[in-house]
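Hey, can you fold this one?
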Amino acid sequence: MTPENHGPTTLSPARIRFALLALAMGGFGIGATEFVAMGLLPDMAADLLPGLAAESTDAANAAAGWIISAYALGVVVGAPTIAAAAARWPRKRLLLALLAAFSIGTVASALLPTFELVVAARFLAALPHGAYFGIASLVAASLMGPGKRARGVALVLSGLTIANVVGVPLITWLGQQAGWRIAYLAVAGIFAATFLAVAVAVPWQAGDAGATMKRELRIFTRAQAWFALAIGAIGFGGLFAVYSYVAPLATEVTGLPEGAVPLVLVVFGLGMTIGNLVGGRLADWSVRRSMYLFFGILAGALVLLGLTAQHPVGLGVGVFLVGASAAALSPTIQARLMDVARDSQSIAAALNHSALNIGNSLGAILGGIVIADGLGYVAPVWVGLLLTGAGIILAIGTFALDRARQRRGIPLPSVTGAFRPVGD
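Sure. Predicted structure:
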């Protein structure tokens, strides 16, 4: 048997667990580099935009939201480009190249001196994000075996959600004590450690020998793929409208001290970790029912947070439920996109993260607009509710289209090439 054919039947259970852990470490690093800006946004605004901060803290915080948006836009650009262009690459080699790029981009983010250069560095550091999650998800699904696709996706994403429990709060605390630049250097160290772990633990896997740029890009000709992307891009924006400004929400609305922000992030991260694992398991049961369920919970959680954020308990319960329901949607949306992508699997696995990070950027930008207009730090919560409502409408539309096609006798393809009923 050649090295390219390693899979769950040729590796020991311990080796499979080690490989999955290494892949999840990459998710941990990505979670840290993506989300640490949320907790350190006021510090970054004060350091990089001192003139604006002296005039208005709110205006500086809103402008600093571009640091978050730039990263999100980098994911949007990089995910389809790298995934389509490199689908033939051996998967382990591609993962190592992406991790090296993460390390370099994150060091640049820490060292560059001006706001404009840091924004540019965050964009460049984000380019490997979607491709890493896409390829790592395919590797994880292969290692876990049939019938566990969404759980494989969730395991890779678990690194990202665990980062929100442990990594982001600790790095936020480090940034508050030693400066936000030191925080980003710590993140770069996580990527360097992940590079070594993947090099040692992940078995060699061949790329998709039949992949071509034309075949991968065929996904953009399918209406249902656009529906799935829009669900992620718009519906998931509800999470980031809140998460982007959770630090000033906690300090300015709830009245908590700055030192409590890492604890709020821990609560957010716990919700995301639990929601991600539950979402992965339920998506393997029924993508449609899971999507409706978790969008409904997210909408309710945003209402709860908007009405009770001035109270510490309300803030804690609200951010936990927002994090849990939004994270549960992530493997669900990815499973849906992979279903409708047919033979464009490499780009589909990565495009999900483009869509989610359009939501990241959209939520951050719209949240910054309402804050800059003087509507306060609770206003982004209501922006998030509107985005979630739009996601629900899109979900209803995509599954209605499924039913219409099935009534016309058109079977619905699954990622395995079999056909699935509408109820799945």
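The chain has 17 helices and no strands. Let me know if you want another pass with a different chain boundary.
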